[in-house]
Model the fold of this input.
Amino acid sequence: MAEAATRRRTRSGGRAGAASRRGTAVIEQMPWNPPINTDRPTEPLTPEGVAAIHDGAMRILEEIGIEFLNPEAVQILRQAGCTVDGENVRMGRDMVMEWIGKAPAEFTLTPRNPARSITVGGRHLLFGNVSSPPNYWDLERGTKVPGTREMCRNLLKLTQYFNCIHFAGGYPVEPVDLHASIRHLDVLFDKLTLTDKVMHAYSLGKERVEDVMEMVRIASGLSHEEFDASPRMYTNINSTSPLKHDYPMLDGWMRLARRGQGLVVTPFTLAGAMAPVTMAGAVAQSLAEALCAVVLAQIIRPGCPVAIGTFTSNVDMKSGAPAFGTPEYMRATQMTGQLARFYGLPLRSSGVCAANVPDGQAMWETSNSLWAAVQSGTNMVYHAAGWLEGGLIASPEKFIMDCEILQQIQRYMDPALTATGPDEIALDAIKSVGNAGHFFGIQHTQDRYTTAFYQPFLSDWRNYEGWEVAGAVWTPERAHLMFKEIIGSFEAPPMDVAIREELADFVARRKAEGGAPTDF
Done:
């Protein structure tokens, strides 16, 4: 029953399909082709509204200030002319606008495989894997369990396998079976050997950041000078809302800034909890927390690549739990997109949900989040595949279900769909059919039928009776079967043997030295 569903789930043309076209591949997926967002952004704010939120963010920075819990950062900002009172830093709007004006509107991140380079900014739209959940769920287990290295490796294999995933974010699930002191070494070794996409470093202490930069440098076969010459990786930091930046994240932020690597700052402002209950207030606070970090990075290295992120959503006022994919989340993302364009900075948002399993709620909330990213002009979409329970669970079935949406977004952006040349207007075809007959058999259709429409790799388009005869396999079950096939047939991208050995030697040496310090 399951085998029959597996055989029929990928079709390459027509309702019956032709699974043989995919050869030995598990699925027939779209090629690597990071999309360009061809739509005009949704802009819910009037020019007066943009000015009001900008003024609110500037007044927060001027009148209230941000706590920088890092003495080095405070000293840098003091020397640049900020007003400092202990750890509280205030900065004027003229200074803010001058420094953020030095940040590039777009930049390119080049991983060890240059063919997987990605451009952040402009109209570029990039999707990344789920990052950082401590727990894992799959259909075989049927319950939430702590993450392990094997689970993490399997999710990294999905990250590499799917062409619609363009960068490898943080750990797709925290492997808590690895001690925190050496976890980053093992996971980065796995990431660099199982994938060839752009890497991420957690800003959680100097050892982790320095180790990851060195491992990325080794994997790319670069000298230190070559590594520093252009961004090869990135970090994402979160402010400690409301109105704080903590020590380790600022430390990592400054270390990557000095070496010209990619920087993303994403305040986690939940309206009603860590930010005002109003969307405009939450967005203004989020912008203030992000822009002051951009200022710090530009003071350290003018022109270093920076993006601002939005994670503004709301809490459930009945339980206090975070909610995602809500109308408020969508509007906050669109509003932040308007302000990001006002500041000339690339934007990061997320594909998120509050659902606990890969069900209907998971998909409508995630779909809302992803389309809000499209509408806002987002450039980097974190957690685009695999996220559950507000970021506490990673799921391979959800990962694969999300990739179906991501491919649809990529196809939606294909310029062929909106082309208006003579072949697309198709007057000759219309004339040949006239007032009778149909378009199935004419040459215009025959020449295009294999590529005319999006073909899903997971959705089942059979009628109820056909679906029932094939075993009545629900979507998460089909995704689970696909997950098993992908993992079973996975082939890691090539890596030079000498480089792999150098990476392994570095990991062994750093483990012998104790890795990163922990308090347990």
About this structure: Residues 192 and 303 are 27 Å apart (CA to CA). The mean pLDDT is 94. DSSP finds 19 helices and 20 strands in the chain.
